[in-house]
Amino acid sequence: MAVTGNGRAGGGPLAGVRVVELAGIGPGPFAAMLLADLGADVVRVDRPGGGGLAVDPAYDVTNRNKRSVLVDLKSAGGPARVLDLVERADVLVEGFRPGVAERLGVGPADCHARNPGLVYGRMTGWGQEGPLAHTAGHDIGYIAVTGALGMIGDADGPPAVPANLVGDYAGGSLYLVIGVLAALQHARTTGAGQVVDAAIVDGTAHLTAMIHGMMAAGGWQDRRGANLLDGGCPFYGTYETSDGQYMAVGALEQQFYDTFTELLGIADRAPARKDLARWGELRAAVAERFKSRTRAQWTELFEGTDACVAPVLSLREAPDHPHLAARGTFTDFGGIVQPAPAPRFSATPAAVTAGPALPGAHTASVAADWDVPALLGEEA
User: Fold this and answer.
1) Is 112 noted as a catalytic residue in this protein?
2) Of 84, 90, 168, 230, which is the active-site residue?
3) Using CA atoms in the order 251, 257, 260, 265, what is the torsion angle rounded to 10 degrees?
4) Does the global pTM surpass 0.90?
5) For the chain, where are the E strands, in sequence order?
6) Terminal CA-to-CA distance of the chain, rounded, Å?
7) pLDDT, position 55
8) Is-catalytic flag, 60?
């Protein structure tokens, strides 16, 4: 019988998969959360005394659906306890700098000696190799050197920082999960595990594949705010409303553009949309109209149409959007409003079954379920 992240019998497409997560920050925990959301039994190995970002563990939803044990990897018996878990696991996820796991005695060679079929997922910014592999970094630096950061923002302003969504989570966590699942399929077919080297710089660069193709074809200029999808196009961008809020416009196709200009009230005087020389004039006309009403009024006008216009909502507003509410895109679990698991499965639905795992809270249950009594030792 499969167990969910909180130890109760449950489902999800990854039910029965066991994952060891060596505690870290950022993309590693998010990747492990995604595996846990999908039904894997994720055991997070936390260090005594904590670490990472100054976030109350009770509110760190990236640790939902997991269980936590405390192990001091620098203690005499710490690595052995982790290897006992590894022997019973399908996947391990770590986010140390290159070489750290090896020095601690839980590197790929150590783990594969105990479990040759293990998928060993490594999450870093720069990757395991290269001139910068051993240097510190954060999301913003990784996306900067890939060209992704330089694409985002107004033509006459600095690059806009997209939180840590593009690098840490899109270029990092999601690529780690893709790699782990692909390697898991290979391991189950052949019995052989392997190392997955997921570098944020690699994943973020990969995300720009279509743009590189467009640039090679002459359809994309290598500068901000001058292209179809980067805000340079007057019918693909954001506009301020009379109450200081914003609307997002994505009316790219002709039929959607026609609906947009008609509902906006400028169909009779909008310059030809393909006349790039008049894009400035078109942008001014669109901006002027949006400033004439509130965001709520424009939302009501465009809602349910094919104009491809939507209100720009804040994080607190998003869960109440009618469409997202109807789909249950967000959920309230334990008093914390948070995104529900994604994507969705018809036969093996995923769910939030447990709140953030507090460090060491599940040592006893994991020791029993995974048959690792050494976790209960005094040095753990």
Assistant:
1) no
2) 168
3) 140
4) yes
5) 18-22, 41-46, 66-70, 91-94, 119-124, 194-199, 236-240, 246-250, 309-311, 330-333, 336-339
6) 28
7) 80
8) no
